[in-house]
Design a protein that fits this description.
seven-stranded mixed beta sheet; two-stranded parallel ribbon; 9 strands; globular; 2 domains; single chain; binds zinc ion; TIM Barrel
Amino acid sequence: MRAVVQNDKNRVVSAMAALAAVAAVAVVSGCAGPGDEAAVRPAAGQQAHRAAAAPDDHAALVAAARRWGLDAVPLRPPAPPKRKPTITARDGFEVDGQVEDDLPPVFTTIPTRKKVVFLTIDDGAEKDPDFLRMMGELHIPYTAFLSNYLVKDDYGYFRRMQAEGHTLNNHTLTHPYLPGLTYDEQKHEICGMQDIMRRQFGKAPTVFRPPYGNYNGDTLRAAKACGIKYAPIWDEEVFVDHWEYREWDRSLHPGDIVLTHFRGRDDWDGTMVDDMRRFLNKVTRDGYAVARLEDYL
Ligand SMILES: [Zn+2]
């Protein structure tokens, strides 16, 4: 049943209501694109989920979705691809020497036909324990891009994330506008963060995101010199009260990378949990599951 999270009065969801919900999703998805596949996926995904999960697991997920105030249980992502997709720089996002010098590609979407999106969370200012609990109970994978000046007061918070299987990646030492810096200064920002991550988290990442999504040729050359292989940016950004889209169609696409930030009430009108509720409700409503970025890299 999709409409599992309701108030108590509606706890008993009739089969008719559930069918109506699926039909409504089908109508919406049908307008959006290669119709039939999109229209059928949410229901099929939900069945696959129910079949795959032991009854107790499913009951726990339903309970967690209700506890965190979600409209529906998040869809379970498909198994990771056996063969990783080939990732190249997005058209128009290359720099001189991109291919010849094998520079880390900048991209906004992972090439896949699966209805998955990837959640990436930047900077590291807010350290909300409820966020960790929510994502753990709902089994939602995500990737964090950390900037040292924001995380150095509590590396332990991010170690907990790492212990739960989430990947920590490089977002520079001080979050500067990199194209305004020399090659050496950029290299210091990126390699310096690699060193800190190796010391604090046991491993230097191979994934890096330039602050603000701004970079130039020196950025990618410096990143490569520091051991970076990928420089994903994003196709959508979710805030606590709205979404922003890179594309004109203002919708999610298979493989899209979604950005949000570790922010709380100091920065916007809500908590990390509120932000994640907005993210998950839309993703699930549109028939997408959240998959693990590193499974595709
Ligand atoms: Zn940032």
